[in-house]
Amino acid sequence: MVAYSKTIRDIKTLVEEGVVPGVSYAFIDGDQVQSGLYGAEQLLPGYEPLKENQLYDLASLTKVVGTVNVILQLVDEGQLKLADTLHAYLPEWADSSVTVRHLITHTSGITGYIPNRNKMPARELHDALLNLHVGPDFEQKMVYSDINFIFLGWVAEAITGTPIQQLITDRVLKPLKMTHSTFAPSDPTICVPTEVSATRGLIRGVVHDPKAFILRDRCGSAGLFATRDDLVKFEQAILSDTHSPIPDPFRAQIAENQTPLGTQGRSFGWALLPVSDAHPHQCIWHSGYTGTAIVLDLATNQGFVFLSNRVHPDAPNEPFLARRNAIIATYLDEKRTAG
């Protein structure tokens, strides 16, 4: 197995320089797994060292760990088509141009401003989201937006009668035996805290994302909590020929551009890392606002799990983003040169 000594060194430096309190990480090479942790889980109101088997608020990793797989399973079962319009399932949405493919590739162009969005009751937020509109970026640009995956969750609910977070639990978490993963942690003390908020205090064991906090089990863009080891199970399942939550017809397509025009660099939910002479085949990845990221190389059966709480104690911690990207680049380089 690759040692990944440079990547681990960069992770430790990230913590030692105070960019994040701590990191849990894992490297997957086929059946082999190398994992570790470094630093603290909490700095305020008091210091707590990072421990094994802690739950992380995955934020937008919920999209690719959960919602993408539910949607593709519904397509595979013939209950949904990628060309189906959002309007067909949510008639309150007046525009008939936006399709499931637009939503899952972030090319819907949906835009608009909702005053006091983070303070609305769930029903009001639901109605306000459905009163947004399609702007000039429709199909022309990939513009990442939680709204796309909130709508996908509502489409899945319209088909099945079951809220998206329960569908993710039933269709992804349980089959993969991700037994620690949950949308409703029963014990906050086993959760790595996120922000110390002026309005919510220390956010621990409750979802950080304000839309997910309001919409609860009807939010497909964020809300999932998971351990590092459960994400290792997820990545190994994606890499597997027999246990993947992605239906067989889509497994070969998940590392390919799936945008309507074929030029916007997005797969089904997943971001595509650039192909170059140094990295000659396609890798997929996704990140979460709270400081989480996962990377998969389906061609070499390898993966990387990176979990931090970069919004603790304060958000948004913008310097983290470039440092995270550099760590992923180091990982890809070490993986390639050792291969």
UniProtKB/TrEMBL annotation:
GO molecular function: hydrolase activity
Record-linked InterPro entries: Beta-lactam-related, Beta-lactam/transpept-like, Diverse_Enzym_Activities
Signal peptide annotation: none
Keywords, in A-Z order: Hydrolase
One Pfam family from the record: Beta-lactamase
Boundaries of every Beta-lactamase-related domain copy: 10-316
Keyword Heme among record annotations: no
PANTHER family: BETA-LACTAMASE-RELATED, BETA-LACTAMASE-RELATED DOMAIN-CONTAINING PROTEIN
Name of the molecule in the record: Beta-lactamase
Origin species: Secundilactobacillus collinoides (Lactobacillus collinoides)
